[in-house]
Structures are given as structure tokens and as C-alpha cells.
Amino acid sequence: MTKITKEDSQVPLAVRIHEEATDQFLRWYQDPHPWSNAFLYGRQFIIDELRRFLATHPVYRIIDVGSGTGHILHWLTEQGYDAIGVEPARQMRALCRQLFPSVQVIEGYADRLPFPSESADLILAIEVLRYLDRETVQRAYQSFWRVLKPGGWIFITHVNRYALDGYWLYWHFQQWLANLSQHIPAPSPCLFTTPPEEITWLRKVGFIHCQAVGRLWAPIRIVYRLSHHLGQWCARLLSRIAPHQRYTHWGKAFAGHLILYAQKPTNH
């Protein structure tokens, strides 16, 4: 695990958590198959949804908020997009530059993006907002709004409160245990939400054409926790019998990944 320095202790908790996870993210990405671990298995559905979005929405200038190791940023650059990453965690930025020297990544925070107003066509925030509280997420939405060009889009992910993997219950159980004993670590911060709730917040900022999509058959994560090998076997099986796992109806509220996209009006 990456060691957190005294200097790092002054940054927000979400950033420190990201610093600590640097080595873990690298190990996950280095696994050879999309079903090798629960992270990669779930991440492929987010990338598939992003591919679908990009195929139908002409954009060029993309900001990847919380770009982490830079794998998605690198992929976007290879596809010909003018993409730049924003990453507050110092060691994540260092790893990104080490892995992908040609990509652009700068220090910054979701709720105060260091870019001029109306300068981006698309803003991504993949598995980032989940670590922030509601107030900070709302400031992030306003920051996204400011930086987006009229007609620009956001593509973001959140954690479903009622995902079938039961993470909401697990998180609260871990928090309860931590409250009982100082020797039990508290779980990482997590903002749980629902598709209607998040769309309401986005519309309050002014976004239109808000759409929520659920991806990933959520209970597979439980299987990975019970047995890594069984999780891999089930993931390979699902890849054959249910390769898409995409829900736009009521099922999106129970999916493992809640993905939302919304547009800034052209005549705001």
C-alpha cells in the first residue's frame, strides 16, 4: 500500500483514500482478463457505455475528472480526442505520467475545475463522485456547468443505493462496527443515490436531457467476495449469456453501476 506522508494528511479524505489505492489500482489494471477481478469486470461496462455515448455524441475536447492511473485518458487520446485529466492525488498523477508519458494530467478538484468557462465538450467523472458528500457533489455539478460549452455533456457514475450487491447494507454494517470500536476502521466515504434523485439534482443546476443507465448485474460482486475463483467463473459465464447487462427501465436502480449523462443547454 502507498504510504501517506505528512504533507498528504492535509488534503481531503477522498484524495488520501485515492493516494492509498494507487498500487491497488495498478495491480487491478495489470490483470490479463476483464473477468480477472471485480474491478475490471465492472469497469468494462462503464467503458462500453462510454463507447456508446461517444458514437452518438460528437465531442472533441474532453476533461476526465479524477483520471487516476490514466488508462481511460490514454484510451481517449488514442481515439483522437483532445483529452486532459484532472487528478488531485499526487501519486496517481505520478503513476499516470509514468505509464502514459504522452497524456496531459494536471492537479485539480471536481468542485473547482482549473479551466476557463465554456471550454469543454464533455466532462467525465467515473467512479469519483461516490467519495464526496452531497454538498461537494453539488459544487462539482456547478463547476462542470461552468466549464462546459453550451451544448456540452457530462458523463458521470454514482453508486446505486439499492444495488443488488447489497453494498449499502454492507457499508452501514461496517460503519456500525466502527462506531462500536476504535480498533475497527470505518468504511471509505460513499454517497448512495438513486436514478430519480440524481436526475433531480442535475436538473436543479440546469442540465437537460438527463438520462440514467444501469450497467452490471450487481450480485456478481458478492460472488467475487465469497470466492475469487467462483467470481471469475460466473463472470465468464455471464459474458456468454448476458454480455451487455444494460438497463434503462426500472432495473437501472438495482444495477452495479449507475451511469448518468446530461447536457448543458445551447441557449442557457
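That was protein one. Protein two is written in the same sequence-then-structure order:
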Amino acid sequence: MSTAGSLIPPRTQQHQAAEPAAPNAVALARQGRRDRLLVLSLLLPAGALLLALLIIPVGWLFYLSLIEGGEYSLVHYERIWTMRSYQNILWTTVKISVIVTVICAVVGYPTAYLLAQLPGPLAAVGLAMVMIPFWISILVRTYAWLILLGARGPIVPFLQQVGLTDNPFLLLYNETGTIIGMVHVMLPFFILPLYANLRSFDWNLMHAAASMGAPPTSAFFRVFLPMSLAGIWAGVVLVFVQSIGFYVTPALLGGGRVTMVSMKIASNIQEYFDWGAASALGVVLLLIASSILILAARLIGGGQLWGTTR
């Protein structure tokens, strides 16, 4: 005997099944729109802040760099491209930044490697020593280097006594003193991201390599070093990008004989009131920094560079 449900035509059954589903779909769509509006409302304050503090100033910088005498012009960029003085300033900036980055890498890698192998309490003490410079103003540290590297400081008189030099300003008011001061300021920016990378390294991999017959040197270069490249690149990017825009230390330790881009920007504004030329140099610095970031992201992957992947 057939049941009562079997007397209902198939199309009627499908229509009855679809009736409760339609209101559910509408409710889900409405809820989805509310969720998106909620997320958008939460992002609006951050977006407004980003617009006010980054997008508008950078846009204004680009605009000023294209204005000369009230008209649109590329004369400021042409000046950077053709004038020898601007080329020398750019070359000096890049050269010093590269040297500082290399020295920070050479000094910072063994330091971070040592800190990563220390037990917790000793590692905390070591990190505190690395971070002590952050507690002191850059201006104070730079004046300290003026004393240490000066003719009456402890370094130059010692070099004179042993007969290595008779120049009282061997380490001051030149590129050497500028590099020394910048390395002191920038070194923690290399050590800290590299230490964070090395601290998460699984040291059992080194034991596994040793158990398979790999000598310590081979295990280091084939296992440890490749897995620390993300931390190295993060430190390199931080140090180099900050170095190309550094101002205080080159201005004081360079003594006016070392001119970097940031100092030329300040000079264009303070002495010549030429906002267009200063803005063009700022745009060039921004492009250099952006190029370095994009190159590093392509070489090691954006997720590793920004720490979004493990």
C-alpha cells in the first residue's frame, strides 16, 4: 500500500523543500553584508590614519617634485640625473650604506649566533646589552663618538704613539668616522631580527647532519646558513633602508665633508628654500628603498621577509 507522501507529485515535493531554503539564503546573504560592513567600519580608522600620514604626504611629495616656477616640469629630476654633484652625493650615500650593512652583517651574525645558543637567562642579558643603545638618544651617542674619535680621545693618541699616524683627525670628519658611528647605531637592527630567526631554529637538524657524517663546517654551510637567510635578509633590509636616509650621525661625524642625500635635502630646504629639489631627492630615496624591499621579497619570498610564514 502506498503512503500519503507518495501521492504528492515530485515537482511539488521539490518546491516544498526549496521554500524553507530561500529565506535561509536571503538571511545568510544579509548577514554576510552586515559582516563585511562591520569589518569595513573597523578598518576605516586605520585607513584614514594611513591616508593622512602616508598616502597624502607621499602624493604631495611627488607633486612638489614636478613643480618648478608654478608649472609642471622634470627639471629637478634632470638636475639629479645630469649634475655631477648630485651623482656624487647619491654615490656616497649608497657606498656608505652598503659598507655599513656589510660590517653590520659581519659583526652581527656571530653575535646573533652566540645569543641563539645561550640558555634563557644569559640570552636575556645578552639581548639587554644589544638593546642598551636604544635607551640612549642618537644625538648623545654621536657626541660620544665625537669625543672618542677626536684628537683628544683615547684612540687617535694611541695610534700616534705607536707610529701608525700623525693625523689628529684620522677618524673624524670623514667617511671612516661616519661609518663607525652609523655601524654603532645600526648594529642592533641587524642582530634583533636575525636572533629571532635563529632562536626558532631546530638544533636537532645539526645533530642529524652530524650523525650522518657531515663535519661541523659542512653542516653549518649546508644546513644552518640556508635556514638563516630570511633573518639575514631582514637585517640587511632594515639596516640599508635606514642608512640611506640617515641624517644625524653623518652630519656630525662627517663634519660637512661627507654629504649624504638626507643632508642635501635639508640643505635645499633650509638654505635655498627649494622644496621641489628636496622633494625630488626624497622621491629618489623612496624609489631606492622600495626597490630594495621588492628585490628582497622576490629573493627570499615576501612571507619570510615580513614574518608571515614559518
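The mean pLDDT is 85. Keep this in mind for the problem set.
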